[in-house]
Design brief:
Blueprint (H helix, E strand, L loop, with lengths): L1 H14 L4 H4 L5 H9 L5 H8 L1 H7 L3 H24 L5 H9 L5 H32 L2 H23 L1
Helix pairs in contact: 6-8
């Protein structure tokens, strides 16, 4: 019986029913994607704008690079302050509403209203930062970024369709 079970397990792994990666300790691509989505705010934008490739492609001057670094530092600090100002995470409260026997609409609305100012402050900070970044870049650099974004979106649409 033990040989049969191990043979069945080996055949399932080789056929692909059970991915061999799930048995390994290395993170899967799904876990890596999830980790990327948990990046700090502005990390992806900072990485895209201040990478060596982006600096060469956009032909950023040293003053522009310094201004961008200052903007990222300033707004990162503001977002950290926001995070500390609203330390409570509503996940547990949302979970309790979902798992309750009956849906309490008023409690859900109160929870959403309580969480709303944080979200608004976060979005306002993000918009201010993007505005500052937008005005640091020249028109030509903005058009290069827009062109790359259109190309990326077209590739993503093509992948979704196939």
């Amino acid at each position: 019986m033990n040989k049969l079970a191990s043979l069945l397990l080996a055949s399932c792994i080789s056929v692909g029913v059970i991915p061999h990666i799930t048995l390994a300790s290395e993170p899967t691509s799904h876990e890596q994607k999830a980790k990327r989505h948990q990046m700090k705010p502005f990390a992806h934008l900072e990485k895209r704008l201040l990478s060596d490739k982006a600096i060469r492609h956009l032909e950023l001057t040293q003053t522009q690079q310094d201004k961008l670094k200052a903007v990222f530092a300033t707004y990162k600090a503001q977002l950290e302050d926001l995070k500390e100002a609203y330390p409570s995470k509503p996940r547990q409260a949302f979970k309790s509403i979902i798992e309750a026997d009956t849906f309490d609409k008023t409690q859900a609305q109160l929870l959403l209203e309580e969480h709303s100012p944080k979200k608004q402050a976060f979005m306002l900070t993000m918009l201010e930062a993007r505005h500052a970044i937008h005005h640091i870049l020249t028109d030509e650099q903005r058009s290069k970024i827009a062109k790359r974004k259109r190309k990326y979106m077209a590739n993503m649409q093509h992948k979704r369709d196939n």
